[in-house]
Amino acid sequence: AQSVTQLDSQVPVFEEAPVELRCNYSSSVSVYLFWYVQYPNQGLQLLLKYLSGSTLVESINGFEAEFNKSQTSFHLRKPSVHISDTAEYFCAVKVMFEGVGNMLTFGGGTRLMVKP
Amino acid sequence: ETGVTQTPRHLVMGMTNKKSLKCEQHLGHNAMYWYKQSAKKPLELMFVYNFKEQTENNSVPSRFSPECPNSSHLFLHLHTLQPEDSALYLCASSQAGTGNEKLFFGSGTQLSVL
């Protein structure tokens, strides 16, 4: 079975500062990796994903994440955050070739709080 | 708007009540999911339906009963719940088998069991 650990439950940061949200996973097989974001009173939305290829993936709103196989990590970073980035961020994994269905294992989430 | 609609947005029920949560997706997807989001806990996958057939029941108590009458609709029937069942219940859908591993989530139903 696989598991996902998000080491920080809350990350307070000032606007325009850089931020890193940490995610580590454990799995005995190859996995796909995801970051989802949940804004207040909304469901989760896919932020970015790593399926294969380049280990650095980017989202359209300036976030990026790097897959590090040796460290089994998929940390999320942004060089300069905005107030609108305040949300809960979830890291998730899915076993490759698991078959039909998209059963993700989620981490506990990290609440990013951007202060003016 | 993600294309996945959940109703009601909020629900308060007593432990002896029977209620149902509804989820509808307008994306043409063939897989639908129920997740439970509790405070300070990871999201828990409850049920998975592929092509209207339940393919996953993640050790969920029988007081939760899913129903998937067609590929666009998913229900979660609730009866004799416990206070610890209070949580945000999220529905999601995806197009399984295409290699596009993206889940589309609804906004959830915030359930309070008194």
Characterization of this structure:
By secondary structure, chain A is an all-beta fold. In chain A, 0% of the residues lie in helices and 52% in strands. Chain A has no helices and 12 strands. In chain A, a hairpin with a 5-residue loop joins strand 7 and strand 8. Chain A is globular, with a radius of gyration of 14 Å. Chain B has 114 residues and is mainly β. In chain B, the strands form 2 sheets. In chain B, strands 2, 4, 5, 6, 9, 10 and 11 form a 7-stranded mixed β-sheet that branches. In chain B, a hairpin with a 2-residue loop joins strand 5 (44-50) and strand 6 (53-57). The A-B interface holds A 4, 9, 32, 34, 36, 41-46, 49, 51, 90, 94, 100-109 and B 2, 4, 6, 31, 33, 40-43, 45, 48, 50, 55-56, 90, 92, 94, 96-97, 99, 101-103, 105-108.
Q: What are the segments of chain B in which pLDDT stays under 50 over at least 5 consecutive residues?
A: none
How far is it from the N-terminal to the C-terminal residue of chain A, by CA?
Answer: 41 Å
Shape category of chain B: globular
- Note poorly predicted spans of chain A: none
Order of helices and strands of chain A: EEEEEEEEEEEE
Number of strands of chain B: 11
User: What does the largest sheet of chain B look like?
Assistant: 7 strands, mixed
Q: How do the helices and strands follow one another from N- to C-terminus of chain B?
A: EEEEEEEEEEE
Structural class of chain A: mainly beta
What is the CA-based Rg of chain B, rounded? 13 Å
Kindly report the average pLDDT value of chain A.
89
Helix content of chain B: under 10%
Rg of chain A, please? 14 Å
Structural class determined from secondary elements of chain B: mainly beta
How many helices of chain B does DSSP assign?
Answer: 0
Give the number of DSSP strands of chain A: 12
Which band does the percent of strand residues of chain A land in? over 45%
- Largest sheet features of chain A: 6 strands, mixed
The end-to-end span of chain B amounts to: 31 Å
Most residues in contact: chain pair: A-B, 25 and 27 residues
